[in-house]
Amino acid sequence: MVAVCERIAVIGAGSWGSVLANTLVLNGLKVRIWSRRQEQVDELNNLHTNRHYLADFEYDSRLQATTELKKVIEGATVILLVVPTKAIRMVSRQIAALLAPNDKKTVIAHASKGLELGTHKRISEIIAEEIPEDRRNGIVALSGPSHAEEVACHDLTLVTAASENQEAAKHIQKIFMNEYFRVYTNSDIIGVELGAAFKNIIALGAGALHGLGYGDDAKAALITRGLAEIARLGVALGAEPLTFIGLTGVGDLIVTCTSVHSRNWRAGDQLGRGEDLKKVVANMGMVIEGINTTKAAYELAQQEKIEMPITEAIYDVIYKGRKIKDAILELMKREGRSEEETKN
Ligand SMILES: NC(=O)C1=CN([C@@H]2O[C@H](COP(=O)(O)OP(=O)(O)OC[C@H]3O[C@@H](n4cnc5c(N)ncnc54)[C@H](OP(=O)(O)O)[C@@H]3O)[C@@H](O)[C@H]2O)C=CC1
Ligand SMILES: O=C(CO)COP(=O)(O)O
Question: Where does the chain bind NADPH (predicted)?
Fold first, then answer.
């Protein structure tokens, strides 16, 4: 059973952070959520809504929001980061400055999905660099096929809490588990974080296929061949191959490539319909992680000498202005291969 007195800090009040925070409140925990904007804090505290991110959802009135980071993390046994990947380093640095040295009480968890531009680091690696080991009790990635819109209305969702520290992973499992939100543990945080990041690239492609009017055969092929290249790069980077057939691999790939809730899928769909990338990003008003992750994965694949034809095609479309139809045609015209080839 979760200790009722336990206090949880959620950092980031976008669609996912706010719904995860609400889930924990409903599970009986004391939760404070941090937002950088006072008007959003006022809306959450007074109206119990967060209209920009989830238009028709009412949050539990026990959820407390504030812009004061110190107040949010004070006394927290878990600090859960749910900001876009590009903000993880800065936020972690600010948190580290507020945690006491030699106080290893706090589990640091995150539910974000991406790789850092430039360094290509996974989120737990960034956190480990910014929050000294003596100020934390493990780093956990909470990941899997999960859309805020569905968890908000208690649809059934299964995710994974991954960490090198199994006690910390079990703690995250314990505080989140309920009758609609089921959590597994996993020790392969490399595979879990890489699967979570890379699936967004393939989701951009799945959306683009839809926008162009292609059917289910094309979608299934993209998901399958996408998984093959995700796993190839992931294993080269130290992941366990089996992780890619779990919730955070194929599970998240399926949901993100097929759900209208996915921002990455929706962005791809609009690109497929001929919209301009800058306009798509501006109109989304929420993070589209796959755009930066495509660049990071493309560079990592070059560095590791791993062939990733789909990622390369999406990179060309996003970063070199290539026409999507031309990129698809080139993929289709590649030399015939054996499906049994595992390396390339
Ligand atoms: N939405 C979902 O269903 C899921 C999302 N995720 C992952 O969770 C992470 C967050 O996604 P999500 O909540 O959807 O994103 P949103 O775009 O909905 O919200 C992002 C939140 O982060 C804040 N933020 C943005 N930039 C910064 C910054 N530089 N410094 C501090 N705070 C910042 C935003 O604040 P402001 O409003 O002030 O801009 C907002 O509160 C992503 O990595 C995503 O892939 C994972 C699973 C499901
Ligand atoms: O990670 C997600 C689903 O598991 C959310 O995907 P999007 O960021 O594409 O909305």
Answer: 15-16, 36-37, 53, 113, 148, 263, 287, 289
- Number of domains into which the chain is organized: 2
Q: How far is the CA of 84 from the centre of ligand 1 (A)?
A: 5
Question: ipTM of this predicted complex?
Answer: 0.99
Question: Could you write out the DSSP letters of every residue in 152-181?
Answer: HTT--EEEEEE-S-HHHHHHHHHHH--SSE
CATH number of 137's domain: 3.40.50.720
Q: Which of 187, 217, 244 is the last residue in one of the domains? A: 187
Beta bridge partners of 159: 183
What global pTM score does this model have?
Answer: 0.97
- Nearest ligand to the C-alpha atom of residue 80: 1
* Residue 14 among known ligand-binding residues: yes
> Domain residues for 163?
7-187
Q: Are residues 139 and 286 in the same domain?
A: no
pLDDT tens for the 344 residues of the chain, in order: 555 579 999 999 999 999 999 999 999 999 999 999 999 999 999 999 999 999 999 999 999 999 999 999 999 999 999 999 999 999 999 999 999 998 888 999 999 999 999 999 999 999 999 999 999 999 999 999 999 999 999 999 999 999 999 999 999 999 999 999 999 999 999 999 999 999 999 999 999 999 999 999 999 999 999 999 999 999 999 999 999 999 999 999 999 999 999 999 999 999 999 999 999 999 999 999 999 999 999 999 999 999 999 999 999 999 999 999 999 999 999 999 998 875 54
From the CA of 263, how far away is ligand 2's center (Å)? 6
Please name which of 328, 314, 326, 315 lies closest in space to residue 218, comparing C-alpha atoms: 328
Q: Name the strand (E) or helix (H) holding 230.
A: helix 216-236
Separation CA 123–CA 130 (nearest Å)? 11
d(CA 215, ligand 2 centre) in Å: 21
Index of the ligand 1 atom closest to the CA of residue 52:
37
Residue 158, Cβ density class (10 Å: 0-12 exposed, 13-18 middle, ≥19 buried)? middle
